[in-house]
Design goal:
Alpha-Beta Plaits; alpha+beta; Uridine Diphospho-n-acetylenolpyruvylglucosamine Reductase, domain 3; globular
């Protein structure tokens, strides 16, 4: 259990902390606000590197659609600031804190970037990495660097944004990021299709996404399939009408949610609220080709009939809840993915379970070797979050 804590207040203090750890061979548990510390392999580190003291907005240029902020800044603060100018984080980062036993609103934007997390708008706006414009930080050699500025030795040619997003703090410690933002929609409406089974729901969602009606969210929960349309009121009304006509032949009831109801509904989908009811359930996140999702869930339910699931990203993302078990049924879950590809990440499980199984999907040997070489370039002494992605 890590007990000692270093809390830098500036980029220079951060660099000095990393340099000290490097010189003294100390490992660092890198945290922003700690909202996702229960995600990943349990770690035993010498020190907690607490970035919460480096918080706040550095610059906000609404006309340029760019916001720059320090590493410990909670997403909730950023969203509140953007809302004052009717703008938003387009990739809709989820708040996984409540799912992981923490309070809502604690997660940082840097944490979302390091996890490459995105909510329902991922299918139209992209993931966190697609909105990262620039950053600065410190690598495991104790060197300060920034995107577009100093190029780190041995990593020339790497797209640093793509490398760091999804690295879960194992390559470098960021002290500041700049992300692009977008205008918030004037109106949000949701068409609900009622009574479709999983396979029919995925077909309907794919049909909607393949239409010209600019769907910004497509999710299927038990008993209802949701399609989101956003924009200015006249456009939303016209597209919603056309979408209903497109799907009229489905054997499904139809209902609509207005703007306030829609925002609440999609916030719950974003934050995985439908699976919070059983606090001891094991939670998996499965990514696969959308049309494969129903078959994957069916294979899992054939062996674990009590499994619960819902779909986001038009079926390309499956959130799965299973009863507690000693191994999180990882062989069943990963074995169900099949030959057409995909990966499964264990999002929530007791520490003993996370210590015993692979939390992140095992990589093929060639990819694992490449990842190790990248790690050698950024953090050769394995200072940052050692073992978290093991």
């Amino acid at each position: 259990m890590t007990t000692s804590r270093i809390k830098p207040r500036s980029p220079e203090e951060l660099r000095q902390a990393v340099e000290w750890a490097l010189n003294d061979s100390k490992t660092l548990d890198v945290r922003g606000q700690g909202s996702k510390i229960a995600l990943g392999k349990p770690m035993t580190c010498d020190q907690v590197l607490d970035l919460s003291g480096m918080s706040g907005v550095v610059d906000y240029a609404p006309e340029e659609l760019v916001v720059t902020l320090r590493a410990g800044t909670p997403i909730s603060e950023v969203e509140a600031l953007l809302a004052q100018r009717n703008q938003m984080l387009a990739f809709e980062p989820p708040d996984l804190g409540p799912l992981l036993g923490r309070e809502a609103g604690q997660g940082t934007l840097v944490g979302a970037v390091m996890g490459n997390l995105a909510g329902p708008r991922r299918l139209s706006a992209g993931a966190a990495r697609d909105h990262l414009l620039g950053f600065s930080g410190v690598n495991g050699r104790g060197e300060s660097f920034k995107s577009g500025g100093k190029v780190m030795k041995n990593v020339t040619g790497y797209d640093l944004s793509k490398l760091l997003a999804g690295s879960w703090g194992t390559l470098a410690v960021l002290d500041q990021v700049s992300v692009k933002v977008l205008p918030a929609p004037d109106q949000t409406r949701t068409l609900l299709l009622l009574g479709l089974d999983d396979a029919a729901a995925v077909r309907a969602m794919c049909a909607a996404l393949g239409s010209p009606h600019d769907i910004s969210g497509a999710a299927h929960l038990p008993g209802k399939t949701a399609l989101r349309i956003e924009g200015v009121a006249p456009s939303v009304e016209a597209r919603l009408k056309a979408l209903r006509e497109l799907l009229i032949d489905l054997d499904a009831g139809m209902e609509e949610l207005g703007t306030l109801e829609s925002r609440a509904f999609w916030r719950e989908v974003r934050d995985v609220a439908p699976l919070r009811a059983a606090p001891d359930a094991v939670i998996w996140k499965i990514s696969s080709p959308p049309t494969e999702g129903p078959a994957i869930v069916a294979r899992i339910k054939a062996q674990r009939s009590s499994a619960e699931a819902f779909y986001d990203w038009s079926g390309g993302l499956i959130w799965l809840a299973l009863p507690p078990s000693a191994d999180a049924d990882h062989a069943i879950v990963r074995g169900a993915i099949g030959a057409k590809g995909g990966h499964a990440t264990l999002i929530r499980a007791p520490e003993s379970v996370r210590a015993a199984v692979s939390v992140f999907h095992p990589q093929p040997a060639a990819l694992a070797a490449l990842a190790s070489r990248v790690k050698d370039s950024f953090d050769p002494k394995r200072l940052f979050n050692p073992g978290r992605m093991g």
